[in-house]
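Hi W., the phosphoenolpyruvate complex you wanted:
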Amino acid sequence: MNVIKGKGVSNGVAIGRMKFLGKTRTGVKRIHSENSEAEMSRFENAKQQTLAQLEQLYQKAVVEVGEANAQIFEIHQMMVEDEDYLESIENIIRSQSVNAEYAVACTGDNFAKMFSSMDDEYMKARSADVLDISDRIVKNLTNAQTEDFSADEKLIICTDDLTPSETVQMDKSKVLAFVTRNGSSNSHTAILARTMSIPAVIGAGEQLLDEYDGADCIVDAFTGEVYVNPDKETAERLTAKREEDIKRRELIRQLKGKENITLDGKKIKLYANIGGLSDVGEALRNDAGGIGLFRSEFLYLESKDYPTEETQFAVYKSVAENMAGKPVIIRTMDIGADKRIDYFNMPYEENPALGWRALRICLDRPEIFKTQLKALCRASAYGNIQIMIPMITSVREIREVRKLVSEVQSQLRADGVSFNENMPIGVMIETPAAAIISDKLAKEADFFSIGTNDLTQYTLACDRQNPRLEKYCNVYHPAILRLIKLAVDNAHAEGKWCGICGELGGDVKMTEQFLAMGVDELSMVPSLILEVRDKVRKCDTSKLDRNILSDIE
Ligand code: PEP
Ligand code: MG
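Structure:
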């Protein structure tokens, strides 16, 4: 057995034979041509043919993966007509007196290299897109056939990389999984694979040998592991894992599109917690009603230096667009405590969890905070973005945040940049102080979201990083439940809504209690959403076992 380690970008377990696809790039020869006009006109025809094909792909993708994900083919159409791209092709044809195929391939390679050398993860991922459109134009110029992926048996498709159009073109009923040597989790191919529920592992590198073609294989896209000629024990373990996954998918099939409503008619919103753009597919696949917590600090953690306004804007905009009008609650950076970042030059602290973290850093370093706020405000023009402030302990803090947001908005207004004038600003209730003064905070904030992870740590004086304290860290402690109830009641008294985005939000043992308390929204890891929906739909809050609540009241 050989084990190849890559990165899982679309969850699932697949068992079958490996099928290697040859390099998808078309080999292109440099041919001298004095007749530049003829080459330009060949190129123009191929360009028009490409635009028509991309329109067809767009229509196919709308049906298969939805409008938001299909937009990549509209972007491809725009790329084909990009002025710089066209200028480069024309320049190579005319100045080097060469054939159109060569000029297109050369331009595609140059642009791809330029994109992949950028720091910005989003732009890096565009490298595959420019290669995709260039290959398509070259194929149209040479009348080459697109590789046929159809086969009689279902196969695990292995290749260097897949372009978005190859992914959409494949006959999904014949594909068990994708394994690629290269690729990025931010790429549209990864997003499309997730949307189509096909397990996918990328970045398998040179360990993915062509000689494995036809070998038995198991892909565990949950861990990113690819087992070639698996032994008996591995096969048994992963077959069981696959069955478990199939059961979950069946639950998804049954519950997808159903309301989150109890037997006695109480409704609740179920949203997803995400760490970045790459989790959005999983949120949609599990039918999230929105994003309840986007931990934006991951953008900072993944980066070697402060992420620029443009980098952040591109990610927030993309998440908002993919969620197509559903709420996207983005928490401003929660740096500090266990999330330390070198380039923030944070001083040594005896008790970092009780230290300089989250909003405290943001208010002390407004120039960094305002970059994030500006990116968020700009992105608010592209969907239902709402911002949420972590680690609030006082009314003063939310007023300061509002002041900074107003400053940023005034600047955008003056620059003629559009944004949502009414973007909601909520606060996290994750310190006992915030819960206790939640009557006051509810007058200033547009909504509450309770961070039970930190609320537990601060209420019970238990460092959440310390495994020794596990037995003291009782998340069901009446003190915590009372604070939750207090925050919910105070939010409602001011006509605001209150959700829970800590781990307790996805705990089905608590769902019934939260419904009875009047919690309006629960946000959790995407994979738990349908299990909680199932629980909600079986609850009858009028017949509630009042054990926990009676202790609160
Ligand atoms: C929480 O504290 O419950 C929370 C959701 O935030 P994090 O876990 O990111 O600190
Ligand atoms: Mg927290």
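The longest helix spans residues 36-80.

W.
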